[in-house]
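Late entry, evening session. Most of the bench is empty. Finally got around to the prediction I had been postponing all week. Sequence below, unchanged from the version circulated by S.P.
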Amino acid sequence: MELPQQALQKANALNNMFSNTALIIGAALAGILVSTVGSTTALAIDAATFFIAGIVVYTFKHVTPPMEIVENTVLHDLKEGWRVFTSFRWLVVIDICFAFIVMSWAAGENVLGPLVARIGIAEVALPGGDAIGSRGLDFHIRGLESLGAKAHNEHGYVIAEAPNGLTGAEIVLDFPSVGATENLMTAAVLAKGVTTIDNAAREPDLVDLGNFLISMGAKIEGLGTPLITITGVTKMHPTDHATIADRIVTGTWAFAAAMTQGDITINGARAQDLEIPLEKLTAAGAIITSNENSIRVRMDSRPKAIDVSTLPYPGFPTDLQPMVITLNAIATGDAMVTENVFEGRFMFVNELIRLGAQITIDGHHAAITGVEKLSSAPVVATDIRAGAGLVLAGLVSDGITFVEDGYHIDRGYPDFAKQLRALGADVTREL
């Protein structure tokens, strides 16, 4: 039977209502059947119902409505989908709210330690954000408990309390987690006595945080080494501090120059923070020059394939893994990229394959055979770095590439599209 256009919405609503009701009732009936007649008989009854349903459906008279000939292109479909999406104000509002929530998750876990140290209690949401693998707060919580705090999970939040203050302790991290090291260091600066963090992270941005705390009156030794020693102080004072350049953003621009055969100068960047990535880019054929305040990356030919294994600093950063995979996707030769930090970091590879990349995943390893050029397709960003990598992949693809869920990219690369356009790229950011 053919329904009139004005009745379709009501029909779909009724269909969904009956379908959901059937799911609930069906599950209950299945349980009753299994408990009374056994699983074998229950499966036979289930098969019989499918057979009867098939006969009933076969008797239906299907009417195919006349097709209206429209522009059948990916661009047209995406534009039409965007038009429909933006027509529902509530959907846009919810999407924006969830983007804000995702940003808040990461911010929350980083203030857990300092809040407990300063006011004796903290309540932050359990971590979310990028879908790159397990990033629990176990290291954070165990470390705070070593300092004398009591912590527990409740309704999706971590609640940590230390009403009588924190006391210095010896803390050994199972893994040199940047977030855990930051949390424990910022908590320990106001703890009574001496705190040591063994197997601490060594990233330059963590060292910069430590120097910031020192300028506020904190007593910290061993920054940039696996053993950090903090002697607690009773109070700290305001200060002015200029943060160092983001080494991952710097590395992203460096790889962008290499894979597009471009010439980019990154002002304010520090080459000493990216020794291994710059060495890998040199092996790929890039010409790199640097001074105290800038890095220039020039590529005059198609890049050569490079093998990379990600490791905590000073190893190759996991956050640049999507960029090196994208570069290898259009490089000459074969390469192997091994991910040793986040088990879910290869999720975006399926999106690269949609663009024509030749990549095979085997556990923690990605085998890549470079092609001369990728081909455009709609793809989805699953996290900040994957999103940036897909945008760069679009620059070396023929046709128009659409990267959905661009809000991920915004969290790590403000004005990314604008900066790319300033470098000559044809990139448009749609809200």
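Two things to note before I forget:
The longest strand covers residues 121-125.
Residues 100-107, 128-135 have pLDDT under 50 and may be disordered.
Will write this up properly tomorrow.
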